[in-house]
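User: Hey, quick favor. My workstation is busy. Could you predict this chain's structure for me?
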Amino acid sequence: MTQHNDVLSDLVEEGNALDSLLVDADESQWARPTPAGGWTIRHQIGHLAMVFAMAEKAAADPAGFTAFTAAITNFDEAVNNGLKPYLALDGRRLLDTWQTQRTATERALHAVPLEQLVPWLVRPIPAAVLAKAGMMEMFAHGQDVADTLQQKRQYTDRIRHVAEFTALTWEFGYESHGLPQPGKGFRFDLTAPSGAVWTLGDPDAEQRITGPAVDLCLLATRRRHRDDLALTATGPDADQWLDIAQAYRGPSGPGRKPGQFAQAAHRP
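Assistant: No problem, here it is.
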């Protein structure tokens, strides 16, 4: 079973698992539309390469990263422009580019203490949290790739990092929807793929979320609709949170529709 402080080695293993889905993909598969509207598999991996390039710069060149982000006036436009070079690559070259980039990012994160603050898009965060954000990105976009290729993912306890990142960023859904936040966060009582029980968030919170850790990760990355998951809420705020949960900043996007995927399709 993975230990929660092994985030860097788990980042490597998660990247390897994602790459295994694509190693034999042909050009027609790279061009397939994914469940994310307007995005092909090429978009998904290009986005990951772009985000990991930013993470490498944040860890290895904090001053350069700060100057880079300070010059951005329209973040969505910057993201779209940053994606274009990756979309111009054929599948094999893009996979090579992504693999080279994630190796460089892993090396940069290994070079700084996990508790050290590094600059990020809104505020500085510990390097360990940046690694968890990378895990969240790979979980989300990897799910789209697996769904598109109709491959069943084998979830492991590495997803603890994604669940921890979700518990840490529980406010993002309220920010995205312009809603007032509750006075305090929630307790998350989760069952890991291994069967272990994890308690995350505020351990003393009366309102809580209970269910499979995989389901929480799928919900917070908006890769499955709440109705298709086995999560339960205790308390009205927790119940509302299940409708708006997201583990990333910015617009929530349309997410997935109820019944879009078979209820148990994600089970290991």
